[in-house]
What does this fold into?
Amino acid sequence: MSVFLLQATAAAVDTVTTAAPAAPIANTSVPVIDLLLRGGLIMIPLVALSILSVYIIIERYITIRKAAGNPDAFMASIRSLMVKGDLAGAKLLCAQTASPLARMVEKGLRRIGLPLKEIETSVENVGKIEIARLEKNISILGIIAGIAPMIGFVGTIIGVIKIFYSIAATKEFGIPQVADGLYVKLVTSATGLIVGIIAHIGYHWLSILVERMVFRMENSAIEFMDILQDN
It folds into this structure.
C-alpha cells in the first residue's frame, strides 16, 4: 500500500512540473551606453574630461619613457670620450642622443673653458627647462581630478530637481516620477567619481615617474661635473 502511495505521489509531482514550467529569469542587465545616455547633457563634459585624462596619461608616459633612455651607458660613453680628449666626439654623441640628459651635457660641453661654476649653472638651467617639458600637462590631471566629481555633483542636483519637478507636475509620487531623476543623479555622480579617480591616479603616477627621471638627471649632472674636474 505504501509503495502504491509513493508511486502516485511521484507521478503527481511529474505532472505538475510538466504542466507548469519554471518562469524564465528576466534579463535585468543594462548596456553601459544606455546608462551614460541616461545621465543627460551633464555627461558631455564628463566624457570629454575622461578622454582628455586618458590622452594625457598615455602621451606623457610615452614621452617620459623615451626621455629616460639609458643614462648609465650614455655617461660611460661621455667619460670614455672625455678621457681620450675627444671633445668633438662627445658633442656628436650628445647631438645624436635625443634625451634631456644629452642636451644638458651638450650645454656643458659647449661651455668648456669657462669656470666650473658657470658650467654647472648652465647645466642646471637646461635641466630645469627639460624638467618643465617632462611635466607638461601633468598639472591638468590634477585639475580634472578636482573638478570631475564636482561636475558629477552638479548632475546630482539636476537629478533631484527633475524628481521634484515631476512630482509637482503630476501631483503623484511613484517610480515613474522619480526614475529619470534618479538615473541622472546616480549616473553623473558615479561617472564624475570614476573620472576623478583616473585623473588622480594618473597625476601621481606620472609625478613619480618624473621625480625618478629628475633624480637620474641630477646624478648624471654631478657625474659630468666630476669628469670635467678630473680632466
Observations:
- Residues 175-230 form the longest helix (56 residues).
- The CA atoms of residues 94 and 106 lie 6 Å apart.
- The chain is about 85% helix and 0% strand.
- Residues 1-27 have pLDDT under 50 and may be disordered.
